Amino acid sequence: MSTATMDGAAEGEHHDETAGKAREAFRGITRDVAWVAEAPKPHKAWLGALTIAVAMLGVGVYSIYVLVTTGIGVWGNSNTVGWAWDITNFVWWIGIGHAGTLISAVLFLTRQSWRVSINRAAEAMTIFAVMCALLFPLLHTGRPWFAWWMLPHPNDMGMWPQFRSPLMWDVFAVSTYATTSILFWYMGLVPDLATFRDRFAMKGDKLKAIIYGTLSLGWRGSARQWHRYERAYLILAGLATPLVFSVHSVVSFDFATSQLPGWHTTIFPPYFVAGAIFSGFAMVLTLMLPLRHLFNLQHIIKESHVEAMCKIMLATGMMVGLAYGTELFIAWYSGNLYEKFAFANRAFGPFWWSYFAMVSCNVLVPQAFWFKKIRQSPIIIFVLCIFINIGMWFERFVIIATSLARSFLPANWSYYTPTRYDVGLFVGTLGMFFTLFLLFFRYVPVIAMSEVKGAMPEAHAGGKKDKH
Amino acid sequence: MSTLQKTLHPDEKIKAGKIGQTMSKAGIGLAVVFLGISIILTLVGSADTSHGHESKWARFFHAYVIGWSYIFTLSLGMLWIIILHYLVRGRWLTAVRRIAEAMTGAFPIIFIAGLGFIIPLLAGYKDLYYWAHPDAHNHELNHHLLHKLGWLSPTFFALRYVIYGIGFSALAAYFAKKSRQQDESGDPKISETLRIASAPAMILFALLTCMVAFDIAMSIAPKWFSTIYGVAFWGSGCVGSFAALALLVLAIQRSGRLTHSINAEHYHDIGKWMFAFTFFWAYTAFSQFMLQWYGNMPEETHWYKYRLFGEWQWVSIAILVGYWAFPFVFLLSRWTKRIVPALVFFAVWQLVFHWLDLYWNIMPSYDWGVVYHEGARIVSGPLTGNPDLHHVGFSPVDITVWIGLVGLWAAGVGMSLKGNLIPVKDPTLPLSLAHEVQ
Amino acid sequence: MSNAHDNHDHDVEPTSYPDGELYGVLAEYDTPGELIDAARKVRDAGYTEFDCYSPFPVHGIDEAMGIKRTILPLIVFGGGATGLLGGLFLQWWMNAYNWPWNIAGKPSWSIPANVPIMFEATILFSVFASFFGMWILNKLPQVWHPFFRADRFAKVTDDAFILGIEAKDKRFEHQATVKLLKDAGALAVEDVHLEGDPARRNMPKWITAFIVASTAFALIPFAIAAKARNSHSSSPHIHIFPDMDFQPKYKSDVAMDLFPDGRANRGEINGTIARGSLNADDTYYRGIENNAWTTGFPKQLEINDATMKRGQNRFNIYCAPCHGFDGQGHGTVAQRVLASGGSAFLPANLVGAGGSAVMMPNGQLFNTISNGFNTMLGYANQIPHADRWAIVLYVRALQRSQHATIEDVPPEQRGSLR
C-alpha cells in the first residue's frame, strides 16, 4: 500500500466543499446499486419470491424427470398435433429474450440514453429466457441425450446434420444468440464487477473481492482500454441487432417453410420479431416494476423510462395487429380454400377461446397505453403486461394448435389437451427464470453503473475549454 | 448522450429563393421530353400481340406503373422518417427535415401523375392489369381469380387510389404545414402536437402503404400473393428515398445554401439509414423468396420461376449483387458515409438499382399467355407460361417513361422548395446542428 | 443521495508492505473535464507512457490523449468473413459433397436453405472476434497492476478521475512531472512504488498450481471421450434410459420355451399355403401334364428371340460351369474334377446324340433343373420358373445346334460360316 492514508490526504490535496459535486452524484449511483449485493441479509420480499420460484423450479425438475425416463407420451402431444405446449413455450421464451437484446443493442444504436437504467437487467433476462427456451427443443426430441448429434462431428456412419432444415437453422441461431447474449452481458458487467471488487476489497471481504476480482479480469478503467471496449461494445451492439432479427426470423421459419395453411406465409419473420419485442418488453416491465419499487430504484429507472417502454409495446402491438390483418386479407385474396378455412377455424373452430384470448390481449389490451394516466400507473401497467404475455403465449398456441388440429384432411382432424407434465414443465421454466433472475438481482450489479454514470449530465462536467 | 448545441450560422443562406423554380422547370422539361419520346416511340411501334396484348400501349403503361411506383416510394420514405422523427423525439433529422418535407410535398403531383394509368383503367383499358381484362372472368382458366374480381375491379381500385392519394397528401401536408408554422412562432407546442399526431399518423401510413403495395404492384400478378409484400415494398422504397435525400441535400448545398448547417455528420446518418434499409430490404426479399422456394407450392413459385430462369436470371443476380451485396459491404465502413463523393456514388447507385428492383417486380408480368380453349382465343394472363419460352425483352420506353416520371416528381418537389430551407425555430434545431455520430 | 449505504464500519486498516522503486505518479482530478484538460497538457508536454482512469468512458478523452483508432473493426471483419465462408463451405462439403442425400427433392447444394446458417456463423465469428479481440488487445485478464497499490486507485471504479504517468517515460522527471500535474488542477498527486519484496511481485505459487491443476482436470473428460472414440469394446452399450432398447418381442431364429419344439419360428401351418405360393399349374411349375412329363412348353412361355436369349444368359450363368458353354459337359467344374483325379461324378453331356438329356421330354428336363439329379443339386431356389423354361428352350436349341446341317442355317447367314 502507498504512503497515503485512507482518506487520501496526500501532499498537495485540498478539501473543497463545492468541488466534488459531480463525484458525489457518481458515488450515489455506486452506492444505490451496490447496496443490494452488500446488504448482509437479503430483503424479506426477495426471500419470499425466491422460495416460490424455487418451488416452481422443483415442479419443473420433477416434470423433466418423468418426461425423460418415460417418454413424450406423458405430454398431450399426439397425431396430428405433434407440436403443442413445447414449441409454444420455446417461441414464447425466445421472444421474451429478444427485448433484452433490443434494449441493449438497438436502443444503444439509436442513442436512446434512457436504456442505461434497465439494460443490465434486460440482458440478464435475455440470457435466462434463452436458457428456459432451449430446454424445450432439447426435451421435445424425446431422446435428448442424442442432442449432440445436431452438431457436425466425424462419425463412423459418415453422417452429417441436415443443414437444409429450419430445425438445424434454429440450433445455430439460438446457440449464436445465447453465446452473443452472454458475451455481451458479461462484457458490460466487467467494469461494474470491478466496482464490486474494489468495494469489497475496501471493506476487507477478501473472498468476495477475489471472486469479483477474478470475474472482472483486472479491469482498471484505463482510457486506452475504454476506447477499445467502447468500440467492441458498439460492434457487438451492431451485430446483436441483425442477430435479434435473424433469430426470431429463423424461429418463424420453423413454421413458414412448411406448407400448412396458417403456417406458410411470408410475413412471419418480421411479424414474429415484432411480437417478440412486444412480449419481451412486457416481461421486462413485469420484472422491473416490482423490483424498482422494492429496492428504491425509482430515481434511476425513471417514470419516463417506463412510459417509453409502454409506447414501444403499443407500437409493436400495433405491428402485430397489422400482421393479423394482413394475414386475414391475404387469406381471402389468395382464394386458397385451405388458407381461408384455417383462419375461419381459428376464430370459430374448437380453439376459438384461445383466439379470443390472443386478440383481446394482443390487440385490445395495449390500446390502454394511449392514455397517459395508464402509462404512469405502475400497478395497472404491471397487470396489463401480464395480460400481454398471456396473449403472446396464446398467439403461438393458436398458430401451432389450430393449424395442426385442423389440417388438410378432415379424417385426420384431432384435438389437443395438455397434461400435468406439459403444465409442470412450463411452470418449472417460469420458476427457473425467476430463480435465476432473483439470484442475479442479489449478487450481480443489477444496473449498469458505469453506463448510468456516463449518461448523466455530470459526465461532461468541468473542463476549461468548451468541447467544440 | 450529447447535449451539445449550436446555433444557425449568421451568414447561412437558408432561403430557397429560385432553387425550387429551377428544379420545377427542369423537372417539367424532363417530363415533357421523355414522356413525349415515350409516346412517340409507342405510337410508331406496334401492338405486342405475341405477349397477349392487343393494345400498343401495354408496354408504355407497364413502364408507367413501374415509374409511378418509383416516384411514389421516393417520397414515401421521407414521410416515414418525418413521422418517426416526431414520434421518438429525434434530433439529427431537423437540419434536413425541411428538405425531406419538400420531397413529401410531391405527393399530390405523384397521384395526379398516377391518373395517367388510373383513368384509362376506368375507361376500360384492359392490357395493364389482367383483372381488368374480360378474359379474367373465364371460369375454367381463372377459377382462383373470380372471387377477388370484386375487389380488383377498375372502379373499386380507382376509389381506393383516390383514398391513397388523399391520405398521403394530407399526411404530408399536415406535417409540412405545421413545421412551417413553427418557423414564425418557434412554439414548442407545435412540436408536441406533431408528436402526438405522429402515432395515429404512423398507423395510417402503415395501412395505406401496405394497400398501395398490394394494389398497384402486387395485383399486376393477380394470381400471386405474399403477405410480406407491403413491408418489402416499403423497405426497398426507403433505400431509394434516403438516396434521393442525400443527393437533394447535396444539390442544395452546392447552390450555396445551408453550407454551414449540414455537415458530414448528417450525411453519415443519411448513409446509415440507406445502409439499414438496404439490409432490411434484403431481409424481407430473402424471406419472401426463401419461404416460397422452400414451400415449393406452384401457386406461389410461378412468380419466382419466371424471375430466376431464362432472361430474367441475370437481372436477379444483378439485384442480389448490386442492390444488396456490393452496397452492403461498402456502406459498412464509416468513410463511405462521411466522404460525400463516396456517399453520392452509392446514392446514385442505389437509385438506379431501386428502379431495377421495381422493374424486376413488375415487368415480368408483362408477358401474357394466350391459350386456345374450345376454339376460342383466350388471354390467360401473366405468369402462365413456361419460363424458358417466356420473353419480355427490353424496350427503350421502360427507361424513357421512368425518367419522364422522375421529372414530374422533381417538379413536385421543386414546387415545395420555397421559403426557409431549414426549420429555423424548431427547438431541436440547435441539437441537430451540433449533431455528432459516435 | 443519503450516505446510509456507505458503511465503512468493517473497513480494515491496510497492512504496510515495503516499497520498491518508483513506478509512477497518480494525480486525481475533480471532474471529467479537468481530466481531459490535464491529459491534453500531459500529451502536449511529450509524455507517452501515461493513461487516464475513470469509472466510465469520458467523452473527448481519446482526442486529448491522442489515442489512435483501434484496429478491432478489421479483426471483426476478418472474423465475419471467416464465419461466412466457413458456414458456406461446411454446408456444401457436408450436405452436397461428402454425403449428399435427397431431402424433399431439394438440390444437394441449396444456397437459399444455406443462407440462415451462413448468416448466423458470420455473426458468431464476428462476435468472437470482437469479444476476444478486445480483451486480447486490452491485455486483459491482467492479474495485477502496480497502481492498485494506491488506495486512491480503488475509487476509479466508483467516482475518481485519475491520470497516471509511468516513471519509465522518457520525459519523466519526478519534480517536473508532479508540478505539471498539479498545475493542471489535480486535487492530489501521489507516488506509487513497486512492490518492495521481489517474492511478492509474482503470482503466488499456489494460484499457478491451482490453475494448472484445474486445466489438467478439465481436460480429463475430453481425454476419456477421445480414448473411447478411438478404441473398441466388446462390452454391451450402457443404457441410461432403456426406453425401447429392450423390446418384449421375439426375433427370428431364437429360442422360445413356450412351444414344445423350443423355437420362436413357427413354420407353415398345416393345410395352408402362403399367398402367391399355390402354384397350381402343374405344367408350368412342375413340368407335368396329364400325369406325364410335358413334351411341349407351357402356354405362359413366349417362344421368341428374347426368351431364347434369356435362356442363353441364364444357362451361361448357372449351367455352363459344369456342363460347359456348349453343353457337352466340359465345364470348368468338370475339368477340375478330372484334374484332381476324380472321374465318378462328371457332369452330363446334354447334347450328345441319343443321350438322356436329348431323349427326355421337356418336363423332365425342367424337373432336373428344379430338383437336381445324382450329385447335381436342384436350382429351384436360384432360378425362377420362367427362367427355367427359358433354359430348357435354350438347351433344346443347343442340342439341335450340335447336330445341325447346312439346311438348318438361314440362307442369308450361310456366308458368315467358314
In words, what does this structure look like?
The complex is a heterotrimer of chains A (468), B (438) and C (418). In chain A, 68% of the residues lie in helices and 0% in strands. Chain A is mainly α and 468 residues long. Chain A has one domain (44-456): Formate dehydrogenase/DMSO reductase domain (Formate dehydrogenase/DMSO reductase fold). In chain A, helix 2 (44-70) packs antiparallel against helix 14 (420-443) and helix 5 packs antiparallel against helix 6. Chain B has 438 residues and is an all-alpha fold. Chain B has one domain (19-433). Chain B is built from 14 helices and 2 strands. In chain B, strands 1-2 form a two-stranded antiparallel ribbon. In chain B, a hairpin with a 2-residue loop joins strand 1 (368-373) and strand 2. The longest helix of chain B is centred in the middle third of the chain and has 32 residues, at 154-185. The model of chain B has no long low-confidence stretch (mean pLDDT 92). By secondary structure, chain C is an alpha+beta fold. The N and C termini of chain C lie far apart (122 Å). Chain C is elongated, with a radius of gyration of 48 Å. Classes of the chains: A mainly alpha (468), B mainly alpha (438), C alpha+beta (418). Chains A and C meet through helix 1, helix 5, helix 7 and helix 15 of A and strand 1, helix 1, strand 2, helix 2 and helix 3 of C.
Q: Tell me, briefly, the overall form of chain B.
A: elongated
Percentage of residues assigned to helices of chain B: 55-70%
> Domains counted in the coordinates of chain B: how many?
1
Total strands of chain A = 0
CATH topology of chain A: Formate dehydrogenase/DMSO reductase fold
Radius of gyration of chain A: 25 Å
Roughly what percent helix of chain A? 55-70%
Instruction: Identify the quaternary structure here.
Output: heterotrimer
- Name the overall outline of chain A: globular
Identify low-pLDDT runs of chain B. Answer: none
Poorly predicted sequence stretches spanning 5 or more consecutive residues of chain A:
1-18
What is the CATH C level class of chain A, in words?
Answer: Mainly Alpha
Termini distance of chain B? Answer: 10 Å
Largest sheet of chain A: none
What is the radius of gyration of chain B computed over CA atoms, rounded to a whole number of angstroms? Answer: 22 Å
Note the beta-strand portion of chain B: under 5%
Structural class of chain B: mainly alpha
**Reported CATH architecture of chain A:** Up-down Bundle
According to CATH, the homologous superfamily of chain A is Formate dehydrogenase/DMSO reductase domain
